[in-house]
């Protein structure tokens, strides 16, 4: 392939059998490859997800590469960086796109530094301008959008913020192995106790009920759990609840928590600060319950209930259970 | 042992949010910067917690010099706050931040750290609340060939290495990192302390060391930004909320009915 490609890389976290956010970033990658007249490559680090070949076809990927190595397990950022740098040197991409997971936040800047390109996080969209790129990114927790121009060969990380259109069907693209010698890599960080979260994840949830500071006390959070259960969803929270130790950090929705995209997001006693909305604005339907009719959350909600959470939520639980 | 904490001055994110919610957040004539001069400037919240992380190591008996670094033209308020909290060395790297990008900022900070004798640990906030990029700490580590551990909520020094609890989306993870290392701090670390009144008065007399890129032998080229801010705008929120009216049982019933009718709920 002589033409410099647009490369989408996926690594680490998986969701629904695919790397987290892979489809969103492939969608962005396909758009960028088309507008800049470049082929689209997809490189997956570690084990190949089941639906990878099919997904590659759906998003117009020319070649699907897999770099697999014992060293590319979870939490192996030194190996991930080394693999992507080697891959980048071999392919000389016009741009390297990743989904912004917590891991990507520490891998992407290092890859950019070693390949000599720029790095931008929190990307929402990107377009080519000549050899350069213009990337629109979220800033101030979502209160503003910053438009940056970067030169050739950047590493760009994206956060999903809208549902992507259903891709049209196409033939699967068989994965080809891409070999990188990682024998010299020695991980500098040793994991003593891995994080062990085994419940359903907010990222995958179709229905989320989140509670905020408006609940008043930790005991009242059980109302959120009950409503989530009655609706067949899972419970989330705003950051103050995590800071105060009411729930652990796996529950936090937002800019610095989970970025979710459920069908239904119910926000109870949450003001709707931009940093919270960054984690739920991709929801199809948002419902808000808040005592303050002027609360920002109502600007995002499809349905609003003005009132005391402690009066409304028990009725919601009753109504949902009756369904 | 020497611990360096890097701090940044930002616009108060809560105030920015309040302006945004009220629909009064405006971008200036340059098309790039927020115009609200009434918005207070303060130390990035996560950076305050990065200082707190160092102070907790000191509380636990660790013996080190605490150096606080900031890039900007007017870091006095930030650095005096750090001095009042117990920082012994204060360094102001004098560059207009609007001419920099995260890579240039990291280059300046890493070069200063190296030139001033290095560090066993560099603490930074996980990201700045203005551009939310979170790239600077990782690039400092890259420049100094240090490892980087992100989103730390608890740090202990054990056998000259760091034992760090990370608040990950999957729950807590405990890792060990040899020094030197860059560690980024997340909000789960908890409330940063306030300096005492007498420490604040004493800190007023402290003069930060002022450093320029030339002092660090960095040419304009070496700190030229690769990421250029061209424009900033305030995104629109559509806002088509339908408010449900009635008593608690009525609104609950209506809501469930509507969600089922729309197919959002089965
Ligand atoms: C850099 C940065 C990153 C951040 N990341 C995140 C993040 O990832 N996630 C996140 O959530 N936040 C994040 N925040 C914090 C965010 O800015 C807000 O402070 C936070 O989301 C507010 O949480 P809240 O809505 O629960 O509380 P508040 O803002 O205090 O809102 C409470 C709401 O409850 C309502 N209320 C009070 N009593 C009742 C009642 N009885 N019944 C009904 N309603 C009631 C009030 O009217 C109010 O609207 C971040 C902030 C910064 C600066």
What is the secondary structure topology, with strand pairs?
The complex is a heterodimer of chains A (323) and B (266).
Chain A: E1 6-10, E2 14-15, E3 18-19, H1 22-35, E4 40-45, H2 52-58, E5 63-67, H3 77-91, E6 95-99, H4 102-115, E7 119-129, E8 132-139, E9 144-150, E10 155-158, E11 175-177, E12 189-193, E13 207-211, H5 221-231, E14 234-237, H6 239-243, E15 264-268, H7 274-277, E16 285-290, H8 297-300, E17 303-306, H9 309-322
Parallel strand pairs in A: 1-4, 1-6, 4-5, 5-11, 6-10, 7-10, 13-14, 13-15, 15-16, 16-17
Antiparallel strand pairs in A: 2-3, 7-8, 8-9
Helix pairs in contact in A: 3-4, 5-9
Chain B: E1 2-7, E2 9-11, H1 13-21, E3 41-43, H2 45-59, E4 65-72, H3 76-85, E5 89-94, H4 102-115, E6 121-125, H5 136-143, E7 147-158, E8 161-168, E9 171-178, E10 181-185, H6 197-203, E11 209-211, E12 227-233, E13 242-243, H7 248-261
Parallel strand pairs in B: 1-4, 1-6, 4-5, 5-11, 6-10, 7-10
Antiparallel strand pairs in B: 2-3, 7-8, 8-9
Helix pairs in contact in B: 3-6, 4-5
Flavin-adenine dinucleotide sits between chains A (141, 212-214, 216, 238-240, 252-257, 269-271, 273, 275-276, 279, 289-292, 295, 308-310) and B (13, 45, 129).
Which descriptors apply to this entry?
heterodimer, A: alpha/beta, Rossmann fold, 2 domains, nine-stranded mixed beta sheet, 27% helix, B: 266 residues, alpha/beta, 7 helices, 29% strand, binds flavin-adenine dinucleotide
């Amino acid at each position: 392939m002589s033409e410099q490609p647009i490369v989408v890389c996926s690594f680490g976290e998986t969701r629904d059998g695919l790397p987290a956010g892979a489809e969103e970033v492939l969608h962005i990658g396909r758009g960028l490859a088309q507008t800049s007249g470049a082929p689209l490559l997809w490189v997956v680090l570690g084990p190949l997800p089941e639906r990878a070949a099919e997904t590659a076809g759906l998003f117009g990927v020319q070649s699907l590469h897999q770099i697999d190595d014992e060293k590319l397990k979870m939490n192996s950022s030194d190996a991930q960086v080394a693999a992507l740098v080697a891959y980048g040197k071999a392919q000389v991409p016009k741009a390297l796109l990743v989904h912004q997971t917590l891991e990507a936040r520490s891998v992407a800047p290092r890859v950019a530094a070693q390949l000599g390109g720029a790095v931008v996080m929190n990307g929402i969209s990107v377009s080519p301008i000549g050899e350069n790129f213009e990337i629109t990114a979220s800033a101030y927790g979502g209160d503003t959008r910053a438009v940056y121009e970067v030169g050739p060969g950047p590493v760009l990380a994206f956060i999903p913020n809208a549902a992507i259109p259903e891709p049209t069907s196409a033939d699967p693209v068989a994965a080809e192995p891409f070999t990188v010698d990682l024998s010299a890599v020695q991980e500098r960080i040793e994991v003593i106790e891995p994080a062990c979260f085994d419940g359903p994840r907010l990222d995958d949830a179709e229905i989320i009920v989140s509670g905020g500071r408006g609940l008043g006390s930790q005991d009242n959070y059980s109302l959120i759990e009950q409503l989530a259960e009655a609706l067949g969803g899972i419970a989330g929270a705003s950051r103050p609840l995590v800071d105060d130790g009411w729930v652990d950090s796996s529950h936090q929705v937002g800019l610095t928590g989970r970025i979710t995209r459920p069908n239904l997001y119910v926000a109870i006693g949450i003001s709707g600060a931009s940093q919270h909305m960054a984690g739920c604005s991709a929801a199809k339907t948002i419902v808000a319950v808040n005592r303050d009719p002027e609360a920002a959350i109502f600007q995002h909600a499809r349905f609003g209930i003005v009132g005391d959470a402690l009066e409304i939520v028990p009725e919601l639980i009753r109504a949902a259970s009756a369904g | 042992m020497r611990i360096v904490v890097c701090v940044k001055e930002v616009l108060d994110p809560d105030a920015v949010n309040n302006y945004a919610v009220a629909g009064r957040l405006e971008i200036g004539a340059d098309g790039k910067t927020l115009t609200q001069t009434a918005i207070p400037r303060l130390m990035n919240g996560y950076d305050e917690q990065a200082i707190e992380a160092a102070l907790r190591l000191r509380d636990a008996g660790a013996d080190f010099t605490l150096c606080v670094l900031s890039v900007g033209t007017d870091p006095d308020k930030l650095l005096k706050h750090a001095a009042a909290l117990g920082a012994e060395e204060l360094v102001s790297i004098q560059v207009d931040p609007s001419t920099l990008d995260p890579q240039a900022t990291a280059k300046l900070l890493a070069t200063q750290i190296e030139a001033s004798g290095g560090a066993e640990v560099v603490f930074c906030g996980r990201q700045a609340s203005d551009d939310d990029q979170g790239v600077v700490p990782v690039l400092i580590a890259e420049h100094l060939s240090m490892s980087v551990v992100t989103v730390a909520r608890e740090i202990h020094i054990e056998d000259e290495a760091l034992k760090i609890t990370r608040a990950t989306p999957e729950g807590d993870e405990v890792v060990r990192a040899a020094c030197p290392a860059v560690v980024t701090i997340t909000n789960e670390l908890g409330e940063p302390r306030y300096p005492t009144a007498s420490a604040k008065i004493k800190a007023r007399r402290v003069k930060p060391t002022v450093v320029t890129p030339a002092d660090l032998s960095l040419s304009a080229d070496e700190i030229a930004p690769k990421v250029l801010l061209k424009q900033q705008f305030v995104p629109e929120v559509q806002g088509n909320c339908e408010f449900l009216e009635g008593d608690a049982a009525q609104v609950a019933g209506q809501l469930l009915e509507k969600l089922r009718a729309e197919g959002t709920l089965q």
